[in-house]
Amino acid sequence: MTTFPIYQIDAFADRMFAGNPAAVVPLDGWLPDIVMQNIAMENNLSETAFIVRCDPATDGAEFHIRWFTPTVEVPLCGHATLASSFVIFNILGFDGDLVRLQSKSGILTARRDGDAIVLNFPKQPIVAEDIPATITAALTDAKPSATFRVASRDTDFVAVYDHASVVRDMVPDMSVLGTLAERGVIVTAPGDKPGIDMVSRYFVPAFGIDEDPVTGYMHCVVAPYWAEYSGKANVVGYQASKRGGIIDCTVDGDRVHLKGNAVLYLKGEIYLAD
Predict the structure, then answer these.
(1) Cα 43 from Cα 91, distance rounded (Å)
(2) By C-alpha distance, which of 61, 253, 244 is closest to 164?
(3) Cβ partners under 8 Å of residue 3, min gap 6
(4) Which of 125, 119, 32, 123 shows the shortest CA–CA distance to 80?
């Protein structure tokens, strides 16, 4: 048998059983894609991240990172990157306060900020686009005030509502949203509590996740929108899933800095037959 360490981290949380859980599997080299996908399926978390040390001189980064949902590999994931950075900084003995991670979305960085970690991610521009009426009806009876599509991924829809209560109380029909091949739906509204600029949720049943608890990538979509709306570079988002989580976001040109905490939940070993 060959064994690999595995860690489960609650990301974008300052206490256990909050935020978004992610598995992190450090490797000496990549496993076959089908094996990594099967591990992610077995974990049955929204994301499993695999990290491999690399040579900064040739790769421009200290680690490679890849992310898998239970059904597919994805090009970008915030909470699993935060979880991986937590493992790198606190468990793998990385010497330094900033780590560079090579990914399918380019070089990502994570730096310590006290007990928190700040991710530097690419902004995700949106373009105006109508959402099929069957989808908006499956979300809620309320009509969105604006609708968009994420331009860089050409997949996710974005629906903007006037009131946070609509987003908080939404009970979507997942059987309808699940018909969106390779598409998710982001819903967002202005914040309704002091210190919260936006309230959002992310539904992705097509990727094997009915609702992602707290999503870094999604805040690279909604933070620029609400930053422009409010005239502030720094906006704070609350993701109104059952677990819930807060992400402090700073929009900096074509990048978004995502600040959050993480907590170790468990560590163990994966056993694979040789």
Answers:
(1) 20
(2) 244
(3) 269, 270, 271, 272
(4) 119
Per-residue pLDDT of 133-163, as tens digits, reads 999 999 999 999 999 999 976 679 999 999 9
Question: For residues 119-156, b (16+ Cβ closer than 10 Å) or e, as one string?
Answer: bbbbbbebeeeebeeebbebbbebebeebbbbebbeeb
Q: Which two tokens stand for residue 189?
A: 């509204």
Q: Which residues pair with 67 in a beta bridge?
A: 49, 74
Q: Can you tell me the distance from the alpha carbon of 217 to that of 212, in angstroms, rounded to the nearest whole number?
A: 11
pTM, whole model, 2 decimals?
0.91
Distance (Å, whole) CA 62 – CA 101? 6
For residues 7-43, b (16+ Cβ closer than 10 Å) or e, as one string? Answer: bbbbbbbeeeebbbbbbbbbeeeebeeeebbebbeeb
Please identify which of the residues 47, 62, 73, 182 carries the catalytic annotation: 47
| Annotation says 47 is catalytic | yes
